[in-house]
Amino acid sequence: MENELAVLPPTTKRVEFHTSRAVNREIEARTIANISRFTGRTSEAVRDRLTQLDNEWDTERTLETMAGTLTVMGTLLGLTVSRRWFIMPALVGGFLVQHAIQGWCPPLAVIRRMGVRTAEEIANERVALKTMRGDFQATDNTHEALAQARMA
Predict the structure, then answer these.
(1) Which of 44, 56, 111, 130 would you label with 105, given CA atoms 20 to 30 Å apart?
(2) In whole angstroms, how far apart are CA 107 and each of 14, 124, 152?
(3) Is residue 78 one of the residues assigned to a domain?
(4) Is the dihedral of CA 100, 101, 103, 106 positive or negative?
């Protein structure tokens, strides 16, 4: 990574920064394989893949869902079973704060090993597919370039 000595890596790279190189390489290889499968395919096939990418859960959504579920479970168990269960929402809250600041928390390693990608990794595949399909036109106009990027 370009900023390996940073205490707080850039927001868009913080999850990758705290993921092992081997896992990052596996995820990148899978992304490249996904893109390669669509070389020479029809616009409809690419459109279908882009729809799949629109629905793919990224690391943030996965972590937020897990955290919310564990917080509700811990709170309900704390109210109905034993007050000791209240430790679960407290731990989950701490992990969320740690993730927000550093881009790392204990569940992240498991989520990444499962192949869950960051929003940026998913977006990179989207842009590559749209580029292969010919969606972008060369332009020197800043507004046109921004409009094309927003449509990506």
Answers:
(1) 56
(2) 15, 24, 30
(3) yes
(4) negative
Distance between CA 149 and CA 78 in Å, rounded? 47
Question: Are the C-beta atoms of 72 and 131 separated by less than 8 Å?
Answer: no
**Whether residue 46 is found in the same domain as residue 80:** no
The reply to whether 30 and 70 lie within a common domain is no
Q: Are residues 32 and 44 in the same domain?
A: yes
pTM here is: 0.84
The whole-angstrom separation of Cα 67 and Cα 92 is: 6
Domain count, the chain: 2
d(CA 29, CA 31): 5
- CB-based contacts of 20, cutoff 8 Å, min separation 6: 109, 112
pLDDT band at 3 (very low <50, low <70, confident <90, very high): very low
Average pLDDT over residues 133-146: 74
Q: What are phi and psi of 40, to 5 degrees?
A: 80, 5
So what's the pLDDT on residue 149? Answer: 66
